[in-house]
Amino acid sequence: MPFPRAAVLWGSVLAYGGGALAGQVLILRELLVLCQGQELKLALGLWCWLFWTGMGSLAGGRLAARHFPGPNSLAFCLFLLGSLLPGTVLAARLLPELLAIPAGQSLGPGTALLLFLGLLAPFGLISGGFFPFACAVQNSLEPRGAVARVYATEALGAAIGIVLLQAVLMGRYANLPLSLGAGLALVSVAALSSRRLTFFGGVLALGIALLFAPPLDWQSRRWQWPGRQVVATGDSPYALLTVTREKEQLTFFANHVWHFTYPDPFSAEPSVHLALLEHPHPERVLLLGGGAPLISEALKHHSIHRLHYVELDPDLVRLAARFVPEAAHYLDGNPRVKIFYQDARRFLTLTDACYDVIIMNLPEPTNAQLNRYYSQEFFRSVARHLSPGGVFSFALGGGGGAGLNPARAAYLALGYNTLRCVFPEVLPFPGDPVRFFASPTEGALVADPEILISRLKARQLDLLYVREYYLRSELAHSRQQFLAAILRQQPLEVNSDLNPRGFFYDLVLTGSREGFPGAAIWLFLKGLPPAVPWIGLGFLCLVLWLSLRKRPVLCCLSQIVVMGLGTMGMEIAVLVLYQIYLGYLYRQLGLLIAAFMLGLAAGGIFWLRFPRGPGPLKRHLAGLQLTLAALALLLPALSAIPEAGPVLPEIAWQGGLLLLLALAGFAGGGIFSLSAALWRQIRPATAWEGGLLYAVDLLGATLGTLGMSLVALPVWGIGPALWGLAALHAFAAASIAGWR
C-alpha cells in the first residue's frame, strides 16, 4: 500500500529525529540526577538506551516484513513517543519514592542497570521500531537508497532538534516542561499527519499538562527526596539545583551531589583556614568553588583585602542568596569580594592576577571532565598565578589511617606526585579528607602545628573546630610521617589532561565500593605492558580479516559497526578535549552534536549519487574508512595546541573541532549509505533490512560509547585510544578492499 504523501513521510521522519534525540538528552539528564553524576552509571543508562533502541529496530524490521506499515503506523509511533517522553521523566523522578531510596545513597551498578532497563524499555523500543517502518514506507515510494535517505533525514531532524533544545530552550525552562513541550510537538505531528481524533485528544491532554507544568514539576521534584523537606529546586544549564532543610541547616545539591551546607563549620573551617594559616599574611585569595560558607570563613582573616570567588553556575549563587544572608551580602556588593561566573580553569587561563592563596573546593575527578582540575597542566596554570611564597590547597577523600586500601593509596599518591612535578614543595595533611598544600617557594609550607596555632592566636580567630586541640591531634608528627610514607611507597604516576589517571582511580574505587566486577578488569588492563594491547588488537584484526573476506554479508555489516564505534569514540574525544581547553562544553554541546549530525545527513545523501556497482562501492567504502582513520590521527595533534593564546587562534581551534566533527559525520553517513547499497547487491531486498542495518549501527555506537568512556580513555588516555580507533578504521578499509 503506497504512502499517500511523501511530504508527510519526511515531516514525520524529521520530527522523529528531533524528538528522539531531544528525548534522549532530557531523559539522560534525569538519569544523571538519579545516579548522582557518576559517569559509570550514566554510561550504563546510555547502554540501556541504545540496547532497547537496537532491539526495537530489529523487532520493527521483522514486523514491517510481515505487515506493511500503513499510513497511520508512523503517526502512531510518534504519538507513543510523545506520550512516553514526559511519562519516562516522571517515572525516573518517582523511583526514589517508590523504592524508598534514602537521600544521598548511591545506587549500586547492578540495581542501576535493572532500573534503567525497565525505565527505558518502552521509549527505546518504540524509538527503534520507527526507523524500519519509515524505511519500508520509503521503499514503497522509491526503493533506491531508501534506508540511506531515511537515515540522513533522521540525522537532519536530530541536528535541528538538538540545536533548538540546547541553544534556545535548555537553561530557560525546566526539564519537565521541556519534555512536555517536546512530547506535545511529536503528538501534534502525529495528529496532523493522520487526522485521527484520538491523537488530537492527546494534543489537548499534553497541552493542559504543559499549562500546569510548574506545580507538577515542583511535586515531582519532591518525590526525588523521600524523608527530606525540599525548600527550593531549579534547572540550570549545568545541573539540577536543590535546597533541602534539616532543622536549622540548609543543604545545597547539584544533581543530587552535596555541594555545601549552611551553617556547617565542621566542613567549611578546615577547607579554608588550614590553607590561610599556611601563609604568614594572606592578602589576595582566590576561591575556586565551595559556595558562600567558604567566603564567610575566609573573610574572618582581616588581612585579606581582595577575595575572588569563581563559580561556574550563576544560578547556584542566586539560589544561595535567597537563603544564606552572607551570600546576599556578597551579591549586593562587598568591597573585599568579587564573584566571577566562569569555569575555574578558564578563569586562570584568562586572568593576569596573582594570589597569595588559592583554595580549590571542586568535586573530585569522578569523570574525564572533572579530571582536568587535578592534572599536571592545571597545576601549572595555578603555579603561574601564585605569588612568591603563595599556597595552593585542595582535598581528596580517603583518610590516612591504617585502613587505607591500595587503590585509595594510589589515588592519593597520584595527586601528591602530580603536584610534585610542578611545585618544589608539597605537604599532605592526614585526615578524611586528606588535604594537600603546594607552594612555588621552597620552605614556605608549615608542618609544625605549633606555628599554625601561633598564627591562629595572632589573627584572633574564634573558630569552633580548627582550634589548638584539633591542630595538635590531626597534625601530629607521627600521623604526618605515616601518611607521607604511604604516599612515597606508591608507584610514580602523573595525572594529565590526555591521560586521566585520576578518573581511572575514581572508577576503580567506585566499582570496588559498590561491588562492580569491572574494578578488577580496569586494574588488570592498567597493569599490562604497553605492547600487549596493540598485539591483541592486531591479532583480533587479523582473525576478523580472515573470517570476513569470504563472507560478504558479515563484511558489509562490519563496515557499519566500525563506523558507529569509531565516530562515537571520536565524538566523545572531541567533547572531552573541548571541555579541557575551553571549559564551557554545556553551552556548546548542542552545536557540537549538531555539527556531527549535519555531517551525517549530508554524507548519507551525497553518496547516494555515486555508481552502485560492487567495485565502486567497495572503493568508496575503503576511502571513507581511511578518512575516518586520518581524522582520528589528527585529533591528538589538535589536542597539542596550547590552551592559552589570543582570540583568533582559539576561534580557529573551535572551528577546527566543529569541522572535524562534521567531516567525521559526513564520512559516517557515507559509509552507512554505501553499505546499505552494497547490502542490496549481495542480498535480495527485504522489508527488515532497514531495521537490521540501523541496529548494527547502534551496536557500534554502544561499543564506542562504553569502550571509549569506560575503558580506553581512563586506562590508556586519549592519544592511544584515538590511535586504536585509527587502526580499526584501517582494518575496515583493508577488509572491504580485500573482500572477494
Describe this structure in words.
- The chain is 66% helix and 9% strand.
- It is built from 27 helices and 11 strands.
- The chain is α/β, with parallel strands linked by helices and 740 residues long.
- It folds into 3 domains: 1-224, Growth Hormone, Chain: A, CATH 1.20.1250; 258-500, Rossmann fold (3-Layer(aba) Sandwich), CATH 3.40.50.150; 528-740, MFS general substrate transporter like domains (Growth Hormone, Chain: A, Up-down Bundle).
- GO terms for molecular function: transferase activity; transmembrane transporter activity.
Question: Can you tag this structure with a few keywords?
Answer:
transmembrane transporter activity, Growth Hormone, Chain: A, Rossmann fold, SAM-dependent_MTases_sf, 27 helices, alpha/beta, four-stranded antiparallel beta sheet, membrane, Spermidine synthase, 740 residues, transferase activity, 3 domains, seven-stranded mixed beta sheet
CATH superfamily of the largest domain: Vaccinia Virus protein VP39
What Rg, in angstroms, do the CA atoms define? 28 Å
Helices, by number, come to 27
* CATH-defined fold name of the largest domain: Rossmann fold
What is the helix content?
55-70%
- Percentage beta strand: 5-15%
CATH architecture of the largest domain, by name, is 3-Layer(aba) Sandwich
Structural class: alpha/beta
Low-pLDDT segments: 642-648
Largest sheet: 7 strands, mixed
What is the total domain count? 3
Strand order of the largest sheet: 7-6-5-8-9-11-10
GO molecular function: transferase activity; transmembrane transporter activity
Family: Belongs to the spermidine/spermine synthase family.
Pfam family, one: Spermine_synth
Keywords: Membrane, Polyamine biosynthesis, Transferase, Transmembrane, Transmembrane helix
